[in-house]
Specification:
This protein has about 350 residues and is α+β, with helices and mostly antiparallel strands. The protein folds into two domains: about 5-65 and about 180-344, 3-hydroxy-3-methylglutaryl-coenzyme A Reductase, Chain A, domain 2 (Alpha-Beta Complex), CATH 3.90.770; about 65-160, Alpha-Beta Plaits, CATH 3.30.70.420. The chain has helices at about 40-55, 80-90, 90-100, 135-150, 175, 190-200, 200-220, 230-240, 250, 285-295, 305-330, 335-344, and strands at about 15-20, 30-35, 60-75, 105-115, 120-125, 155-160, 180-190, 255-260, 265-275. Strands 1, 2, 3, 4, 5, 6, 7, 8 and 9 form a nine-stranded mixed beta sheet that branches. A hairpin with a 2-residue loop joins β8 and β9. α3 (about 90-100) packs across α4 and α8 packs antiparallel against α11.
């Protein structure tokens, strides 16, 4: 589209914090930008940020980092589809060479195959460095298909994306196999700080997490998810940092775990599918670059270091927002009073 025809949708943005984060990827206090029309999100997440500082910081680790694309091919029958699966299992190094030749940043991780009748769904996983990796994996998948269809002419091409990726849809497989950065954040909040800042007790938050997030989600048919509103904070953070906002669909699948430990609150948020990048489409907008710069995500780091830093900050912000909302929900009427005060 010509630049003269490009319009910008203005979304209100504020910076909350500081959020205190500790761990191998981030170890500092950081101000976090959030772009949203839901104005109570700022003070609520900011309350969680204050608790993070007063409690000594949110510990954050990344356990996995990958992007996936699943190609779909058709064999004449199920037996031949199975033979192709076995063939691919013996071709790991060849596949690695093909995929890594498509980008100097792509690092092959694995292929997983799922057979359904005579159909073969082949899920390719790579590490995409500082990119979110959608286009990088698609380019790698195209090259893989060229090789596979030449090697196995009995196969018929159906799609470069067979929905087993799973891209921007709710699924179990992304939580199990991973898509994006798998980030775990945890915080221990002293009992006196729960009462002072959150206006509740560790016991009430633990009870609510079991009966709302766990049992309520199970009864509602949630898939590998148990949280109050991960999507709210993720969307605000994604919009502020130039991310593909549709990735909140798989990104919002995650779990909250809460315990009372020696009278204090242990509160953890696990996000297995945080899909973010610090390079690529959308990152050239001035406000995005300014935000990424302020977050320390445009520095000279080892490949993937900036995107991992961004993922940790996103997950820490999610924990802050989740903790604050869960505390509010333990107090009858607090949620509605806040929205009426700030949004009417």
């Amino acid at each position: 589209m010509p630049e003269s025809m490009l319009n910008i949708a203005a979304i209100p943005m504020q910076t909350i914090g500081p959020v205190k984060i500790t761990g191998p990827v981030v170890n500092e206090e950081i101000m976090v930008p959030l772009a949203t029309f839901e104005t109570p999100l700022w003070p609520s997440t900011n309350r969680g940020a204050r608790v993070s500082v007063q409690s000594g910081g949110i510990r954050a680790v990344i356990t996995d980092d990958r992007m996936t694309r699943s190609v779909l091919v058709e064999a004449p029958d199920a037996e031949q589809a199975l033979a192709v699966k076995h063939f691919l299992q013996a071709q790991t190094e060849t596949i690695r060479s093909i995929i890594e030749s498509t980008s100097r940043y792509a690092r092959f991780i694995e292929v997983k195959c799922e057979n359904a009748a005579n159909l073969l769904y082949i899920r390719i996983a790579i590490n995409a460095g500082d990119a979110s990796g959608h286009n990088m994996t698609t380019k790698a998948a195209d090259a893989f298909l060229d090789w596979l269809l030449a090697e196995r002419p009995e196969l018929r091409y159906l799609s470069v994306s067979g929905n087993y990726c799973v891209d921007k849809k709710v699924s179990a497989v992304n939580g199990i196999l991973g898509r994006g950065k798998h980030v775990i954040t945890e915080l221990v909040v002293p009992e006196k700080l729960c009462r002072r800042y959150l206006k509740t007790t560790p016991e009430k938050i633990v009870e609510l997490n079991i009966k709302k997030n766990l049992l309520g989600t199970m009864l509602g048919g949630g898939i590998r998810t148990a949280n109050a509103h991960f999507a709210n904070i993720l969307l605000a953070f994604y919009l502020a940092t130039g991310q593909d906002a549709a990735n909140i669909i798989e990104g919002s699948q995650g779990t909250v775990h809460a315990e009372v430990r020696n009278g204090d609150l242990y509160f953890a948020a696990t996000l297995p599918n945080v899909i973010v990048g610090t390079v690529g489409n959308g990152k050239d907008l001035d406000f995005v670059r300014n935000n990424l710069q302020a977050l320390g995500c445009l520095e000279q780091r080892k490949a993937g270091g900036n995107a991992q830093r961004l993922a940790v900050i996103a997950a820490a912000a999610v924990l802050c927002g989740e903790l604050s909302l869960m505390a509010a929900l333990t107090n009858r009427g607090e949620l509605m009073r806040t929205h009426e005060k700030l949004e009417r």
